Amino acid sequence: MSLGKLMKERTFGFALILFLFLFLISITFFFLSSGKTVDLPYYFSLAGRSDVSTTEPSDANDAPVPPGKDSPALKARKSNFPTPPALDIAWRPCEGVLAADYIPCLDNYKAIKRLPTRRHMEHRERHCPKPAPLRCLVPLPKGYKRPLPWPKSRDMIWYDNVPHPKLVEYKKDQNWVRKEGDQFVFPGGGTQFKDGVSNYASFIHKTVPIIHWGRQIRVALDVGCGVASFGGYLLDKQVLTMSIAPKDEHEAQIQFALERGIPAFLSVIGTQQLVFPDNAFDLVHCARCRVHWDADGGKPLLELNRVLRPGGFFIWSATPVYQDDQRDAKVWKSVSALTEAMCWKVVAKTMDSTGIGLVIYQKPENPSCYEKRPQNNPPLCDQNDQHNISWYTPLLNCITRLPLDKQGKVIKWPVTWPYRLSSLPVPMPLEPGVVEQYKADNRRWTELVSDTYLMKLNISWPSFRNIMDMNAGYGGFAAALIDLPYWVMNVVPVHEEDTLSIIYDRGLIGVYHDWCESFNTYPRTYDLLHSSFLFKTLSERCDLIDVGVEIDRIVRPGGYLLVFDTIEMINKLTAILKSLHWSVKIHQAQYLVAQKSLWRPTS
Protein backbone atom coordinates (compact mmCIF):
# COMPACT_ATOMS: atom_id res chain seq x y z
CA MET A 1 0.00 0.00 0.00
CA SER A 2 1.38 3.42 -0.95
CA LEU A 3 2.13 6.11 1.65
CA GLY A 4 -0.46 8.34 0.02
CA LYS A 5 -3.14 5.67 0.41
CA LEU A 6 -2.14 5.05 4.02
CA MET A 7 -2.51 8.73 4.76
CA LYS A 8 -5.82 8.90 2.94
CA GLU A 9 -7.38 5.89 4.66
CA ARG A 10 -5.68 6.58 8.06
CA THR A 11 -5.56 2.85 8.84
CA PHE A 12 -4.44 1.39 12.16
CA GLY A 13 -1.20 0.25 10.48
CA PHE A 14 -0.43 3.78 9.42
CA ALA A 15 -0.99 5.01 12.98
CA LEU A 16 1.40 2.37 14.29
CA ILE A 17 4.06 3.25 11.73
CA LEU A 18 3.69 6.95 12.56
CA PHE A 19 3.97 6.24 16.31
CA LEU A 20 7.19 4.22 15.83
CA PHE A 21 8.66 6.93 13.59
CA LEU A 22 7.99 9.67 16.15
CA PHE A 23 9.30 7.44 18.97
CA LEU A 24 12.63 6.96 17.15
CA ILE A 25 12.95 10.72 16.60
CA SER A 26 12.28 11.44 20.28
CA ILE A 27 14.91 8.89 21.41
CA THR A 28 17.48 10.41 19.04
CA PHE A 29 16.76 13.92 20.29
CA PHE A 30 17.05 12.75 23.93
CA PHE A 31 20.58 11.44 23.42
CA LEU A 32 21.65 14.53 21.51
CA SER A 33 20.39 16.91 24.17
CA SER A 34 21.30 14.93 27.27
CA GLY A 35 25.01 15.50 26.86
CA LYS A 36 25.87 11.77 26.70
CA THR A 37 29.00 12.40 24.69
CA VAL A 38 32.63 11.48 25.13
CA ASP A 39 34.43 14.15 27.14
CA LEU A 40 36.86 16.09 24.98
CA PRO A 41 40.48 16.12 26.16
CA TYR A 42 41.38 19.54 27.47
CA TYR A 43 43.87 21.64 25.57
CA PHE A 44 44.06 25.40 25.42
CA SER A 45 44.12 25.65 21.63
CA LEU A 46 41.81 24.35 18.93
CA ALA A 47 44.70 23.03 16.87
CA GLY A 48 44.67 19.28 16.49
CA ARG A 49 41.11 18.94 17.88
CA SER A 50 39.53 16.74 15.22
CA ASP A 51 36.69 16.07 17.67
CA VAL A 52 35.64 19.73 17.79
CA SER A 53 33.84 21.35 14.92
CA THR A 54 34.44 25.06 14.39
CA THR A 55 31.92 25.28 11.55
CA GLU A 56 28.26 24.41 11.18
CA PRO A 57 27.67 20.64 10.65
CA SER A 58 26.62 19.62 7.17
CA ASP A 59 23.84 17.30 6.09
CA ALA A 60 24.01 15.22 2.95
CA ASN A 61 20.22 15.31 2.71
CA ASP A 62 19.96 19.12 2.80
CA ALA A 63 18.26 20.36 -0.31
CA PRO A 64 20.03 23.12 -2.29
CA VAL A 65 19.24 26.55 -0.90
CA PRO A 66 19.97 30.05 -2.21
CA PRO A 67 23.30 31.63 -1.16
CA GLY A 68 23.12 33.24 2.29
CA LYS A 69 20.08 31.13 3.32
CA ASP A 70 19.92 28.20 5.74
CA SER A 71 18.28 24.91 4.87
CA PRO A 72 15.40 23.71 7.09
CA ALA A 73 17.64 20.99 8.53
CA LEU A 74 20.34 23.50 9.40
CA LYS A 75 17.80 25.83 11.00
CA ALA A 76 16.62 22.95 13.17
CA ARG A 77 20.16 22.20 14.29
CA LYS A 78 20.66 25.86 15.22
CA SER A 79 17.83 25.82 17.70
CA ASN A 80 18.78 26.26 21.35
CA PHE A 81 19.34 23.22 23.50
CA PRO A 82 17.28 22.86 26.70
CA THR A 83 19.05 24.25 29.75
CA PRO A 84 19.21 22.81 33.27
CA PRO A 85 17.41 24.56 36.15
CA ALA A 86 19.13 27.12 38.38
CA LEU A 87 20.92 26.09 41.53
CA ASP A 88 19.03 26.96 44.69
CA ILE A 89 21.40 29.52 46.25
CA ALA A 90 20.32 32.28 48.62
CA TRP A 91 22.57 35.05 47.33
CA ARG A 92 23.37 38.04 49.52
CA PRO A 93 24.83 41.44 48.63
CA CYS A 94 28.35 42.44 49.66
CA GLU A 95 28.17 44.95 52.50
CA GLY A 96 30.01 48.10 53.49
CA VAL A 97 30.50 51.57 52.02
CA LEU A 98 33.02 50.22 49.48
CA ALA A 99 31.01 47.13 48.51
CA ALA A 100 30.31 48.33 44.96
CA ASP A 101 34.06 48.38 44.27
CA TYR A 102 34.96 45.18 46.14
CA ILE A 103 38.03 43.27 44.96
CA PRO A 104 38.46 40.23 47.25
CA CYS A 105 42.23 39.79 46.96
CA LEU A 106 43.00 43.52 47.26
CA ASP A 107 40.43 44.44 49.91
CA ASN A 108 41.31 41.84 52.53
CA TYR A 109 41.66 44.35 55.35
CA LYS A 110 42.12 41.70 58.03
CA ALA A 111 45.25 40.42 56.29
CA ILE A 112 46.47 43.95 55.56
CA LYS A 113 46.18 44.93 59.23
CA ARG A 114 48.39 41.98 60.19
CA LEU A 115 51.25 43.02 57.89
CA PRO A 116 54.46 43.70 59.85
CA THR A 117 55.43 46.51 57.46
CA ARG A 118 54.08 48.58 54.58
CA ARG A 119 57.43 50.02 53.60
CA HIS A 120 57.51 48.27 50.21
CA MET A 121 53.82 48.67 49.33
CA GLU A 122 52.93 45.29 50.78
CA HIS A 123 49.44 46.60 51.60
CA ARG A 124 48.78 47.22 47.88
CA GLU A 125 49.64 43.66 46.90
CA ARG A 126 47.37 40.61 46.73
CA HIS A 127 46.16 39.07 49.98
CA CYS A 128 43.45 36.60 49.06
CA PRO A 129 41.09 35.57 51.89
CA LYS A 130 41.75 32.07 53.19
CA PRO A 131 39.49 30.34 53.79
CA ALA A 132 37.29 31.97 51.19
CA PRO A 133 34.78 34.43 52.69
CA LEU A 134 31.04 33.99 52.51
CA ARG A 135 29.92 34.44 48.93
CA CYS A 136 28.38 37.81 48.11
CA LEU A 137 27.50 39.78 44.99
CA VAL A 138 28.74 43.32 44.54
CA PRO A 139 25.92 45.90 44.39
CA LEU A 140 25.53 48.44 41.62
CA PRO A 141 26.36 52.09 42.27
CA LYS A 142 23.20 54.16 42.58
CA GLY A 143 22.17 55.49 39.18
CA TYR A 144 24.39 53.07 37.22
CA LYS A 145 23.95 53.32 33.42
CA ARG A 146 25.21 51.33 30.46
CA PRO A 147 28.71 52.76 29.71
CA LEU A 148 29.08 55.14 26.80
CA PRO A 149 30.27 53.50 23.58
CA TRP A 150 33.82 53.66 22.26
CA PRO A 151 35.37 56.00 21.10
CA LYS A 152 33.14 58.50 22.90
CA SER A 153 34.00 56.80 26.20
CA ARG A 154 37.67 57.72 25.85
CA ASP A 155 36.75 61.35 26.45
CA MET A 156 33.79 61.07 28.85
CA ILE A 157 32.05 58.60 31.18
CA TRP A 158 28.97 58.64 33.41
CA TYR A 159 29.70 60.03 36.87
CA ASP A 160 27.30 57.60 38.55
CA ASN A 161 29.19 54.59 37.17
CA VAL A 162 32.43 55.63 38.93
CA PRO A 163 31.26 58.13 41.57
CA HIS A 164 34.72 59.09 42.85
CA PRO A 165 35.41 62.84 42.58
CA LYS A 166 38.69 63.07 44.54
CA LEU A 167 40.91 63.05 41.43
CA VAL A 168 39.05 66.09 40.09
CA GLU A 169 40.30 68.08 43.07
CA TYR A 170 43.72 66.41 43.35
CA LYS A 171 44.60 66.96 39.68
CA LYS A 172 42.58 70.06 38.79
CA ASP A 173 45.68 71.89 37.52
CA GLN A 174 47.04 68.95 35.51
CA ASN A 175 44.30 68.39 32.92
CA TRP A 176 43.54 64.84 34.06
CA VAL A 177 39.79 64.90 34.57
CA ARG A 178 36.90 67.35 35.08
CA LYS A 179 33.33 66.87 36.26
CA GLU A 180 30.75 68.39 33.92
CA GLY A 181 27.12 67.76 34.88
CA ASP A 182 26.48 64.03 35.10
CA GLN A 183 29.74 63.10 33.41
CA PHE A 184 33.50 62.99 33.96
CA VAL A 185 35.41 64.53 31.05
CA PHE A 186 39.01 63.61 30.21
CA PRO A 187 40.89 66.33 28.29
CA GLY A 188 43.83 64.02 27.57
CA GLY A 189 46.42 65.72 29.76
CA GLY A 190 48.62 64.47 32.56
CA THR A 191 51.09 65.65 35.17
CA GLN A 192 53.96 65.61 32.67
CA PHE A 193 52.00 66.28 29.47
CA LYS A 194 49.52 69.05 30.19
CA ASP A 195 49.34 69.85 26.47
CA GLY A 196 48.11 66.36 25.68
CA VAL A 197 49.53 62.96 24.82
CA SER A 198 49.78 63.59 21.08
CA ASN A 199 52.24 66.45 21.55
CA TYR A 200 54.13 64.50 24.19
CA ALA A 201 54.41 61.38 21.97
CA SER A 202 55.51 63.48 18.99
CA PHE A 203 58.19 65.11 21.14
CA ILE A 204 59.49 61.68 22.19
CA HIS A 205 59.63 60.46 18.57
CA LYS A 206 61.38 63.65 17.46
CA THR A 207 63.92 63.23 20.25
CA VAL A 208 64.57 59.53 19.48
CA PRO A 209 63.32 58.74 15.94
CA ILE A 210 63.88 55.01 16.41
CA ILE A 211 60.90 55.13 18.81
CA HIS A 212 58.47 54.73 15.96
CA TRP A 213 55.00 54.44 17.51
CA GLY A 214 52.88 51.66 16.03
CA ARG A 215 55.72 50.16 13.99
CA GLN A 216 58.69 49.13 16.10
CA ILE A 217 56.91 50.11 19.32
CA ARG A 218 53.70 48.09 19.61
CA VAL A 219 53.31 46.90 23.25
CA ALA A 220 54.09 49.34 26.07
CA LEU A 221 53.81 49.42 29.85
CA ASP A 222 52.73 52.63 31.59
CA VAL A 223 53.64 52.48 35.29
CA GLY A 224 51.57 54.66 37.64
CA CYS A 225 49.28 55.49 34.75
CA GLY A 226 46.75 57.80 36.42
CA VAL A 227 43.55 57.69 34.34
CA ALA A 228 45.51 56.07 31.46
CA SER A 229 45.36 58.96 29.00
CA PHE A 230 48.89 58.11 27.81
CA GLY A 231 47.80 54.63 26.75
CA GLY A 232 44.38 55.81 25.59
CA TYR A 233 45.71 58.26 23.05
CA LEU A 234 48.52 55.98 21.86
CA LEU A 235 45.80 53.62 20.62
CA ASP A 236 45.42 56.04 17.69
CA LYS A 237 49.06 55.27 16.85
CA GLN A 238 48.49 51.47 16.94
CA VAL A 239 50.28 51.12 20.28
CA LEU A 240 48.70 48.76 22.81
CA THR A 241 49.60 49.93 26.32
CA MET A 242 49.19 48.00 29.54
CA SER A 243 48.41 50.80 32.02
CA ILE A 244 49.02 49.81 35.64
CA ALA A 245 48.53 51.47 39.01
CA PRO A 246 47.66 50.27 42.52
CA LYS A 247 44.34 50.61 44.27
CA ASP A 248 45.43 53.52 46.46
CA GLU A 249 44.57 57.05 47.55
CA HIS A 250 44.41 58.13 43.89
CA GLU A 251 40.86 56.94 44.02
CA ALA A 252 39.70 54.55 41.30
CA GLN A 253 42.21 55.58 38.61
CA ILE A 254 42.22 52.11 37.02
CA GLN A 255 38.43 52.02 37.25
CA PHE A 256 38.32 55.31 35.34
CA ALA A 257 40.62 53.82 32.69
CA LEU A 258 38.56 50.67 32.15
CA GLU A 259 35.28 52.60 32.16
CA ARG A 260 36.82 54.69 29.36
CA GLY A 261 37.61 51.51 27.39
CA ILE A 262 41.40 51.74 27.83
CA PRO A 263 43.49 48.65 28.68
CA ALA A 264 44.41 48.78 32.38
CA PHE A 265 45.25 46.52 35.29
CA LEU A 266 45.59 46.93 39.05
CA SER A 267 49.21 46.30 39.99
CA VAL A 268 52.05 47.66 42.08
CA ILE A 269 55.82 47.25 42.08
CA GLY A 270 56.23 46.24 45.71
CA THR A 271 57.82 43.00 46.87
CA GLN A 272 56.60 40.70 44.10
CA GLN A 273 57.19 40.47 40.38
CA LEU A 274 54.65 41.91 37.98
CA VAL A 275 52.43 39.25 36.39
CA PHE A 276 54.09 39.64 32.98
CA PRO A 277 56.69 37.42 31.31
CA ASP A 278 60.35 38.26 30.87
CA ASN A 279 61.28 40.45 27.87
CA ALA A 280 57.66 41.35 27.11
CA PHE A 281 57.42 45.10 26.49
CA ASP A 282 58.93 47.21 23.72
CA LEU A 283 58.79 50.31 25.91
CA VAL A 284 58.12 51.20 29.54
CA HIS A 285 56.92 54.67 30.55
CA CYS A 286 56.82 56.43 33.91
CA ALA A 287 55.61 60.00 34.27
CA ARG A 288 55.82 61.00 37.94
CA CYS A 289 54.75 57.45 38.79
CA ARG A 290 55.89 57.69 42.42
CA VAL A 291 58.01 54.53 42.26
CA HIS A 292 61.32 54.70 44.12
CA TRP A 293 63.37 52.99 41.44
CA ASP A 294 66.56 52.80 43.47
CA ALA A 295 64.88 51.44 46.63
CA ASP A 296 65.86 48.13 48.23
CA GLY A 297 69.05 47.80 46.23
CA GLY A 298 67.33 48.80 43.00
CA LYS A 299 64.84 45.91 42.92
CA PRO A 300 62.04 47.99 41.30
CA LEU A 301 64.30 49.02 38.40
CA LEU A 302 65.64 45.49 38.07
CA GLU A 303 62.02 44.37 37.71
CA LEU A 304 61.54 46.80 34.83
CA ASN A 305 64.68 45.37 33.27
CA ARG A 306 63.13 41.91 33.53
CA VAL A 307 59.92 42.77 31.63
CA LEU A 308 61.64 45.02 29.04
CA ARG A 309 62.77 43.26 25.88
CA PRO A 310 66.44 43.52 24.76
CA GLY A 311 66.86 46.88 23.01
CA GLY A 312 63.66 48.19 24.61
CA PHE A 313 63.26 51.71 25.97
CA PHE A 314 62.46 53.17 29.38
CA ILE A 315 61.09 56.73 29.37
CA TRP A 316 61.29 58.42 32.76
CA SER A 317 59.74 61.86 33.17
CA ALA A 318 60.05 63.03 36.78
CA THR A 319 61.54 65.90 38.77
CA PRO A 320 64.89 64.14 39.47
CA VAL A 321 65.51 64.29 35.72
CA TYR A 322 65.21 68.07 35.35
CA GLN A 323 65.31 69.68 38.80
CA ASP A 324 68.45 70.12 40.88
CA ASP A 325 67.29 70.56 44.46
CA GLN A 326 69.11 68.41 46.99
CA ARG A 327 66.55 65.61 47.15
CA ASP A 328 66.10 65.30 43.38
CA ALA A 329 69.84 65.46 42.79
CA LYS A 330 70.37 62.60 45.23
CA VAL A 331 67.76 60.44 43.50
CA TRP A 332 69.19 61.22 40.06
CA LYS A 333 72.70 60.27 41.17
CA SER A 334 71.50 56.98 42.65
CA VAL A 335 69.40 56.01 39.61
CA SER A 336 72.20 56.98 37.22
CA ALA A 337 74.64 54.74 39.04
CA LEU A 338 72.17 51.85 38.98
CA THR A 339 71.29 52.16 35.29
CA GLU A 340 74.98 52.33 34.39
CA ALA A 341 75.64 49.16 36.40
CA MET A 342 72.70 47.50 34.54
CA CYS A 343 74.30 48.50 31.20
CA TRP A 344 71.38 50.72 30.25
CA LYS A 345 72.40 53.41 27.79
CA VAL A 346 71.13 57.00 27.97
CA VAL A 347 69.96 57.72 24.43
CA ALA A 348 68.46 61.13 25.27
CA LYS A 349 68.00 63.54 28.14
CA THR A 350 66.00 66.60 27.20
CA MET A 351 63.31 69.12 28.13
CA ASP A 352 60.22 70.15 26.20
CA SER A 353 58.81 73.64 25.64
CA THR A 354 56.77 73.48 28.86
CA GLY A 355 59.86 72.92 30.98
CA ILE A 356 59.16 69.23 31.57
CA GLY A 357 62.20 67.02 31.23
CA LEU A 358 62.64 63.34 30.49
CA VAL A 359 65.38 60.79 30.06
CA ILE A 360 65.23 57.83 27.68
CA TYR A 361 67.21 54.70 28.47
CA GLN A 362 67.78 51.67 26.26
CA LYS A 363 68.33 48.12 27.52
CA PRO A 364 71.34 46.35 25.98
CA GLU A 365 70.82 44.09 22.98
CA ASN A 366 73.81 41.83 23.72
CA PRO A 367 75.50 40.62 26.92
CA SER A 368 79.01 41.94 26.21
CA CYS A 369 78.57 44.95 28.54
CA TYR A 370 77.79 42.68 31.49
CA GLU A 371 81.10 40.89 31.03
CA LYS A 372 83.07 44.14 30.95
CA ARG A 373 81.70 45.67 34.16
CA PRO A 374 84.39 46.40 36.76
CA GLN A 375 82.12 44.98 39.46
CA ASN A 376 79.52 42.25 39.20
CA ASN A 377 76.94 44.34 41.04
CA PRO A 378 74.07 43.84 40.64
CA PRO A 379 74.95 40.29 39.62
CA LEU A 380 73.49 38.40 36.71
CA CYS A 381 70.67 36.11 37.79
CA ASP A 382 71.35 32.43 38.05
CA GLN A 383 69.38 30.52 35.43
CA ASN A 384 67.58 28.68 38.24
CA ASP A 385 66.35 31.99 39.70
CA GLN A 386 64.44 32.96 36.56
CA HIS A 387 60.76 31.98 36.63
CA ASN A 388 58.94 33.10 33.52
CA ILE A 389 55.53 32.46 35.08
CA SER A 390 55.65 35.27 37.61
CA TRP A 391 52.92 34.53 40.14
CA TYR A 392 53.59 35.47 43.78
CA THR A 393 57.27 35.48 42.84
CA PRO A 394 59.54 37.70 44.98
CA LEU A 395 61.43 40.52 43.27
CA LEU A 396 64.97 39.62 42.27
CA ASN A 397 68.07 41.59 43.21
CA CYS A 398 69.91 40.50 40.08
CA ILE A 399 69.91 41.29 36.35
CA THR A 400 67.74 38.96 34.29
CA ARG A 401 69.83 37.35 31.59
CA LEU A 402 69.09 38.19 27.97
CA PRO A 403 67.08 35.48 26.19
CA LEU A 404 69.11 33.29 23.85
CA ASP A 405 68.12 31.04 20.97
CA LYS A 406 69.48 27.54 20.43
CA GLN A 407 72.53 28.99 18.67
CA GLY A 408 73.36 31.07 21.73
CA LYS A 409 72.41 34.37 20.09
CA VAL A 410 70.20 36.99 21.79
CA ILE A 411 66.64 36.63 20.54
CA LYS A 412 65.99 39.38 18.05
CA TRP A 413 63.29 42.07 18.06
CA PRO A 414 60.01 41.05 16.40
CA VAL A 415 59.17 42.31 12.93
CA THR A 416 57.30 45.62 12.79
CA TRP A 417 53.58 45.91 13.44
CA PRO A 418 51.21 44.76 11.99
CA TYR A 419 53.33 41.98 10.47
CA ARG A 420 54.36 40.62 13.87
CA LEU A 421 50.77 39.53 14.57
CA SER A 422 50.85 36.90 11.82
CA SER A 423 54.59 36.15 11.77
CA LEU A 424 56.00 33.17 13.63
CA PRO A 425 56.71 34.42 17.17
CA VAL A 426 60.39 34.48 18.12
CA PRO A 427 59.88 32.56 21.44
CA MET A 428 57.99 29.77 19.64
CA PRO A 429 59.53 26.36 20.41
CA LEU A 430 60.78 24.70 17.23
CA GLU A 431 60.02 21.12 18.25
CA PRO A 432 58.42 18.97 15.53
CA GLY A 433 54.75 19.75 15.09
CA VAL A 434 54.63 22.87 17.28
CA VAL A 435 54.80 25.36 14.41
CA GLU A 436 52.18 23.47 12.43
CA GLN A 437 49.97 23.36 15.52
CA TYR A 438 50.36 27.12 16.02
CA LYS A 439 49.40 27.85 12.42
CA ALA A 440 46.42 25.50 12.56
CA ASP A 441 45.32 27.11 15.82
CA ASN A 442 45.28 30.55 14.17
CA ARG A 443 43.31 29.28 11.19
CA ARG A 444 40.68 27.63 13.36
CA TRP A 445 40.22 30.66 15.59
CA THR A 446 39.83 32.88 12.53
CA GLU A 447 37.14 30.56 11.18
CA LEU A 448 35.37 30.11 14.51
CA VAL A 449 35.24 33.84 15.28
CA SER A 450 34.20 34.97 11.82
CA ASP A 451 31.77 32.16 10.99
CA THR A 452 30.22 31.36 14.38
CA TYR A 453 30.97 33.85 17.14
CA LEU A 454 30.26 36.99 15.15
CA MET A 455 27.48 35.66 12.94
CA LYS A 456 25.49 32.88 14.59
CA LEU A 457 25.35 33.26 18.37
CA ASN A 458 23.11 36.34 18.58
CA ILE A 459 25.61 38.30 20.70
CA SER A 460 25.50 42.10 20.79
CA TRP A 461 29.07 42.63 19.56
CA PRO A 462 28.67 46.31 18.54
CA SER A 463 28.17 47.27 22.20
CA PHE A 464 31.52 45.80 23.29
CA ARG A 465 34.87 47.41 24.03
CA ASN A 466 36.66 45.54 26.86
CA ILE A 467 37.04 41.80 26.25
CA MET A 468 38.89 39.16 28.24
CA ASP A 469 40.02 35.73 27.09
CA MET A 470 40.17 33.66 30.28
CA ASN A 471 42.60 31.10 28.81
CA ALA A 472 44.17 32.70 25.80
CA GLY A 473 46.55 30.02 24.51
CA TYR A 474 48.48 31.57 21.64
CA GLY A 475 46.16 34.59 21.49
CA GLY A 476 44.25 33.33 18.47
CA PHE A 477 40.88 34.62 19.70
CA ALA A 478 42.31 38.13 20.21
CA ALA A 479 44.12 38.03 16.86
CA ALA A 480 40.87 37.13 15.09
CA LEU A 481 39.25 40.29 16.52
CA ILE A 482 42.17 42.61 15.73
CA ASP A 483 40.39 44.63 13.02
CA LEU A 484 37.35 45.33 15.23
CA PRO A 485 37.09 48.18 17.80
CA TYR A 486 37.86 45.98 20.80
CA TRP A 487 40.88 45.25 22.94
CA VAL A 488 41.46 41.87 24.57
CA MET A 489 43.08 41.07 27.92
CA ASN A 490 44.72 37.68 27.26
CA VAL A 491 44.91 35.64 30.46
CA VAL A 492 47.26 32.67 30.70
CA PRO A 493 46.25 30.53 33.71
CA VAL A 494 49.27 29.69 35.85
CA HIS A 495 48.47 25.97 35.87
CA GLU A 496 48.46 25.71 32.07
CA GLU A 497 51.20 25.87 29.46
CA ASP A 498 53.01 29.22 29.48
CA THR A 499 52.28 30.99 26.21
CA LEU A 500 52.27 34.61 27.39
CA SER A 501 55.66 35.42 25.84
CA ILE A 502 54.26 34.35 22.48
CA ILE A 503 51.22 36.58 22.99
CA TYR A 504 53.43 39.63 23.64
CA ASP A 505 55.70 38.77 20.75
CA ARG A 506 52.63 38.89 18.50
CA GLY A 507 51.91 42.45 19.65
CA LEU A 508 49.09 41.58 22.08
CA ILE A 509 48.89 42.01 25.86
CA GLY A 510 47.95 39.85 28.81
CA VAL A 511 48.69 38.60 32.32
CA TYR A 512 49.17 35.44 34.33
CA HIS A 513 46.33 34.50 36.68
CA ASP A 514 44.84 31.71 38.77
CA TRP A 515 41.07 31.59 38.30
CA CYS A 516 40.63 30.05 41.74
CA GLU A 517 41.32 33.59 43.01
CA SER A 518 39.87 36.99 42.19
CA PHE A 519 41.24 38.97 39.24
CA ASN A 520 42.94 42.34 39.73
CA THR A 521 40.20 44.49 38.31
CA TYR A 522 37.25 46.51 39.60
CA PRO A 523 33.68 45.22 39.32
CA ARG A 524 31.79 45.86 36.08
CA THR A 525 34.87 46.43 33.91
CA TYR A 526 34.51 43.95 31.00
CA ASP A 527 31.84 43.59 28.31
CA LEU A 528 32.65 39.97 27.42
CA LEU A 529 34.52 37.11 29.06
CA HIS A 530 35.48 34.20 26.81
CA SER A 531 36.89 30.77 27.54
CA SER A 532 37.72 27.63 25.59
CA PHE A 533 37.77 24.29 27.44
CA LEU A 534 38.89 25.92 30.68
CA PHE A 535 36.42 24.68 33.25
CA LYS A 536 37.06 20.95 33.51
CA THR A 537 40.60 21.32 34.86
CA LEU A 538 39.53 24.38 36.85
CA SER A 539 36.71 22.43 38.54
CA GLU A 540 39.28 19.93 39.79
CA ARG A 541 41.03 22.70 41.73
CA CYS A 542 38.25 24.94 43.02
CA ASP A 543 34.48 25.34 43.27
CA LEU A 544 32.89 26.55 40.04
CA ILE A 545 30.32 28.49 42.07
CA ASP A 546 33.15 30.76 43.31
CA VAL A 547 34.38 31.16 39.73
CA GLY A 548 30.83 32.09 38.70
CA VAL A 549 30.69 34.77 41.42
CA GLU A 550 33.96 36.22 40.13
CA ILE A 551 32.67 36.26 36.56
CA ASP A 552 29.53 38.04 37.80
CA ARG A 553 31.73 40.60 39.58
CA ILE A 554 33.84 41.37 36.52
CA VAL A 555 31.17 41.53 33.79
CA ARG A 556 29.11 44.68 33.27
CA PRO A 557 25.30 44.49 33.38
CA GLY A 558 24.26 43.65 29.84
CA GLY A 559 27.65 42.03 29.22
CA TYR A 560 28.26 38.43 28.19
CA LEU A 561 30.05 35.21 29.03
CA LEU A 562 30.89 33.09 25.97
CA VAL A 563 32.08 29.56 26.72
CA PHE A 564 33.26 26.94 24.22
CA ASP A 565 33.29 23.66 26.17
CA THR A 566 31.77 20.23 26.71
CA ILE A 567 28.05 19.98 27.39
CA GLU A 568 28.85 18.63 30.87
CA MET A 569 30.72 21.81 31.82
CA ILE A 570 28.20 24.02 30.05
CA ASN A 571 25.34 22.52 32.05
CA LYS A 572 27.20 23.04 35.34
CA LEU A 573 27.88 26.68 34.47
CA THR A 574 24.31 27.20 33.29
CA ALA A 575 22.85 26.15 36.64
CA ILE A 576 25.17 28.59 38.43
CA LEU A 577 24.51 31.50 36.06
CA LYS A 578 20.75 31.00 36.18
CA SER A 579 20.87 31.30 39.96
CA LEU A 580 22.59 34.68 39.36
CA HIS A 581 19.66 35.69 37.11
CA TRP A 582 21.71 35.62 33.92
CA SER A 583 19.89 34.72 30.71
CA VAL A 584 21.43 31.59 29.19
CA LYS A 585 21.35 29.94 25.79
CA ILE A 586 23.18 26.82 24.61
CA HIS A 587 24.04 26.43 20.94
CA GLN A 588 24.94 23.13 19.27
CA ALA A 589 25.74 21.58 22.67
CA GLN A 590 29.15 23.29 22.70
CA TYR A 591 28.61 27.07 23.01
CA LEU A 592 27.23 28.73 26.13
CA VAL A 593 26.06 32.32 25.63
CA ALA A 594 25.05 34.00 28.89
CA GLN A 595 24.08 37.64 29.45
CA LYS A 596 24.19 39.39 32.81
CA SER A 597 21.11 41.28 33.99
CA LEU A 598 20.74 44.27 36.31
CA TRP A 599 19.47 41.98 39.09
CA ARG A 600 21.16 42.27 42.48
CA PRO A 601 20.09 40.52 45.69
CA THR A 602 18.58 42.53 48.51
CA SER A 603 19.67 42.35 52.14
TrEMBL record:
It is a single-pass membrane protein; Single-pass type II membrane protein. It is an enzyme of class 2 (transferase). The keyword Cytoplasm does not apply. GO terms for cellular component: endosome; membrane; trans-Golgi network. Keywords: Glycoprotein, Membrane, Methyltransferase, Signal-anchor, Transferase, Transmembrane, Transmembrane helix. Pfam families: Methyltransf_29. InterPro entries: Put_SAM_MeTrfase, SAM-dependent_MTases_sf. One of its GO terms (biological process) is methylation. The chain crosses the membrane at residues 12-32. Residues 51-80 are annotated as: Disordered. Its EC number is 2.1.1.-. It comes from the Eukaryota. GO terms for molecular function: methyltransferase activity. It is found in: Endomembrane system; Membrane. Belongs to the methyltransferase superfamily. This is Methyltransferase.
